Amino acid sequence: MGFKCGIVGLPNVGKSTLFNALTATSLAQAENFPFCTIEPNFGRVLVPDNRLNEISSISDSKITIPTHLEFVDIAGLVKGASKGEGLGNQFLSNIRNVDAIIHVLRCFDDENITHVNNNIDPVFDSEIIDTELLISDLNMIENMSNNLKKKSSSGDKNIKTNITILENVLEILEKGLPARNIQYEDDYEKIYFNSLQLLTNKPIIYLSNVEEENAEQGNIYSAQIDKKSKEENTKNIIVSASIEAEISQLENIEERNSFLESIGLNETGLSKLVKGGYEILDLITFFTSGPKESRAWTIPRGTKAPDAAGVIHTDFKKGFIRAEKISFNDFNKLGGEKPSKEAGKMTQEGKDYEVEDGDILHFLFNI
Fold first, then answer.
1. Where does the pLDDT of residue 86 fall: very low under 50, low under 70, confident under 90, or very high at 90 and above?
2. Residue 145: what pLDDT?
3. SS3 assignment, position 241
């Protein structure tokens, strides 16, 4: 089950350089001109988790398989993208397919790299993208609402509810507010609202791209985004794309850790971004483990045991009987499945059990 984070921003803010570094690939071009990325590039990033390594070691597993996040590098948007300026419509549609938006903002001065607005102002830049996403949502919802009103006499009992939801969304968008300000408690309303895939309803992380010397504390530009992110109750992560590019060229963990230490950093931008992605999407990790393999799996917090089983294989969900659960702490402290079971730390969980972060699960099923 992959979770996709779309990397967006104005041209020449360091998106593709960052994407290349994060995914350690050369898929995305990083040239000094707008629209260098024509097709969205996809990269899968393994999620580092020391718990998995410990579980695998205890189980003496032959294979260790981390979970992952997917990053999608989406070409630079410009003012007017929602009306087709640049390559706008194509890329706005690509954003609808991601689970969260990573908004890269230029927070550095460099006369050798042109800025699309000829001025370094990350807050203004962010507002350009925010506006384009909002206008795109507004146009889509207006069209959907008009089409549904034409069908309101069809007898479909859900149409009136859907129209009401669309009108609520329109009211919020017309005030210049993102759709993520809307919350529904009713299951049907929530499902329909989420099915709209509104751009302004997606969780957002700001990524302030700073110079190397400001990678630890940030600068005056990133401080402006800090303030904005706090007002919006989201996250701002400070990175230096150039540092991440250097790190991606190092061959092993020891070299990377030594490099980070030499420049006064505790972790890579990738590590900070993965943590931010998990937090903003409210994701957790559970594990399966045995002699053959130990593996990490990503699920939303609150997922019940049968749905977690379905992430592994649909048959596991269809024929779910129960789950045998050991917490990571017990598994690690007691030394594996057998001693945990003997100590009474393995529990039997049914269909209503909500999986917790760090659970080690074995699913019993019947087809």
1. very low
2. 92
3. helix
